[in-house]
Amino acid sequence: MTQPGNDTTDGEIGYQEREAVAVFDSEKALNAAVDALMQFGLRQKDLSVLAPSEKLSASNPTTALEDKDDAARAAYVTPDSRVEGLAALTGGPALVTGLGAALVAGTVGLALIPTLAVTIGGAAATGSVGFMLSRIFGRKHADAIQQQLANGGLLLWVHAPDTKDDAKILEILTQNGGRDAHIHVVHRNWGIDEVPFKDANPDPLLKL
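Request: output the structure for the sequence above.
Response:
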């Protein structure tokens, strides 16, 4: 259950959320756990993984991030969605707009969005450019997976607001190869920085 929070001195609102977490030794095992969780009734938006932007090392392995409130996260993207997205990219970069930022953020991180904008804006919507972009997405995803596996494993967080589901969620995680599966509470803040497009200017001709 999401716990209501209190206003902080900088205007942000603090709150708490319950979730399950586990570490996996392969992407196949993690995907199998996700399939079972979704069959149980969870939604894709209840799942998150470690973001590729998180810097890992021997002193900062994935296992040390399991219970950290500020660990960089990304929305879980199903393998089917990723394959379909890469196929669409190969067919033409103009389709990136239709895919939206979710695929980008979930597979390679937000850092590539400006690069994509330049590439798409400066090139014709040809299959060759789309193929190049699909290669970038695929390689970045594979590199992120390998880096996480080399530094402790793949993390999966599962939003678990209802305590009656705890036992089943932990059972599914464990049966599908999840290590150190447990429930914890994370502390988060909601403020102006979390408002989507807070810095966007709807009209580029407007002067602030």
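The longest strand covers residues 13-24.
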